[in-house]
Amino acid sequence: MLEIKNLHVSIEGKKILKGLDLKINKGEVHALMGPNGSGKSTLSYVLSGKDGYEIDKGSISYKNKNLLELEVDERANEGLFLAFQYPMEIPGVQTSFFLRTAINSKRKYLGEPEIDSLDFAKSMRVVAEKLSIAPEMLKRDLNVNYSGGEKKKQEILQMSMLNPDMAILDETDSGLDIDALRIVSDGVNNLRNKNNSFLVITHYQRLLNYIKPDFVHIIADGKIVKSGDYSLALELEEQGYEKLSINQ
Amino acid sequence: MAATQKTIEQVNNLGNNEYKYGFSTDVEEIRPPKGLSEEIVKFISAQKNEPNWMLEWRLNAFKVFLKLPHPNWAKLNIPKIDFQDYYYYSSPKSLADKPKSLDEIDPEILKTYEKLGIPLKEQEILSGVAVDAVFDSVSVATTYKKQLNDLGIIFCSISEAIKEHPELIKKYLGSVIPVTDHSFSALNSAVFTDGSFVYIPENVRCPVELSTYFRINAINTGQFERTLIIADKNSYVSYLEGCTAPMRDENQLHAANVELIALDNAEIKYSTVQNWYPGDVEGKGGIYNFVTKRGACRGVNSKISWTQVETGSAITWKYPSCILQGDNSKGEFYSVAITNNKQQADTGTKMIHIGKNTSSKIISKGISAGYANNTYRGLVNIHSKAINARNFTQCDSLLIGNKCGAHTVPYIESSNSDSIVEHEATTSKINEDQLFYCQQRGLSSEDAVGLIVNGFCKEVLQHLPMEFAVEAQKLVSISLEGSVG
Known about the structure:
heterodimer; A: about 250 residues; alpha/beta; Rossmann fold; four-stranded antiparallel β-sheet; 7 helices; 12 strands; about 35% helix; B: alpha/beta; ten-stranded mixed β-sheet; globular
């Protein structure tokens, strides 16, 4: 699905990623853990194509395409989804309208007709209910005056409706209380199947109690320094980054 | 719905940056020589077979025009206008012998309106929109006439009204915008060529949206339309106007006067979607749009509401205003003004509170992109007798890029202490992170800008009649194409 080779990235001349390798196959869930400033969020922005990141070296292939050649919206419409750490507020744009616009953008890209309004409303209601999102929320302006937890649920709603091939969750657990954490995790688990992949970026092991990863990677100073299975996350939780000799 | 649907489809089909209404129509025109003189004023009046009192009125206005200086207080860079370099009358030849039905109208002209999405044929007008279409200087056809007649509603061209309803014209024309107001109002009064006239009788609620479509076709032609709307006691009318012009390298001049009069308990809702040719990316060509629009709430509990979406013109100079004379009368102004490339807009409103308990509301959204300059200029004036008057003003500006400008110039004059005047203003830049967020959800950068800007304008767009709101949303997006790299 996704293969990153020897990726070097800098922002305004400052080196952030320094030779990162990562391979994610179909049907796999990978967790990426690391201390603040290790390059976790940078990786999520580089994958989704945000401006301002200089690719100095390396390659990224996604679904056998050169990801770095695709525009932001092309990547999205090719099924790459980023659940933002800080979702944006868009005043005056109704949440449901935004969602429908996103779905229709993807359909247009794929040469499919626009989604039927009734089908859309119906499936949105079903998914929203599972995520404990009240129907009134869908009529409000996107993310405006939403609590932190509501914003994160909104991201999962969008992800579920867009049904991506490769989803990146950037610190989705930050700012969530235990109930919201469970709901958000359920949302991800419901979506998991043998054809899609997830990259779960997190600071804490807590989220991984709910979303069980197949692989855990530890990133430090712009590189993956250790990889393993779920037990690595537990080990990390117990000992901390420092004891595992990972530079903060 | 057919008319609107067609327009929307055409907008949808527009795949590039070009001004979609930029075609011109090949028709033979009747035109006197270029230039402005007493002779031209007489010529126009004669072409329209006007009664003598009208000619006198025009000639007087022309004298006033010659004496008045041009208003120069707007934050606009207006090149010197050579009034002698324009044609002041242009009429397709085939319209000279007034067509009696649509079958007699030059098919070329009908095609123009079809291209614009305004088919005139009765059978296509199912949408409940009655259309008066003005092609250069002449009103082409007024649809829906009979149905409106049965209710006593008069909806016709102003030229016809001058002949058929002289008592109303004499009573109301120039009663809201005096000839002597400023040079453009005097100029319009002298050389106005056509426009619409509406009279809604007492206790009648006009069942359809009335609409005028203005089109400048001929080269170097000034369009000076004059619209007069009177809503008698307890009546209601909603009126829409749309405007386009072909792409020309020369600047075309447009100086309209629109007067509204609302009597006791009457309400007038006036909506404009202005999409005159804005000039090219370098600022060459485009319409100079100098418009005076003013409504008088003469009766108690009367209400006038202006909604405008201004996306076109090289220069927009326009301040739709309300004079709130009647006690408890209400004035509203909802505006979206978008300037891109080298467009300039100086637009806003005046709310003059005279009666007791009068209230006004101003919501202005200015969007600037490219090298454009966009100014909100507004006056809230509260007379000493306007006890308990209220005003709320909100001006928001959105900047796209860093070479454009947004300016807010509110004037507030209050002569009594019982009144409450509130003013809020914000200026923001379009947020790169918002754009990125939308694009990450699959929207192209242009769709993302359109979505965010439409969200920014929502408070205004929702005041437009339904069908026009959809078209306006598309226009908002189209007029900003190319504004983000």
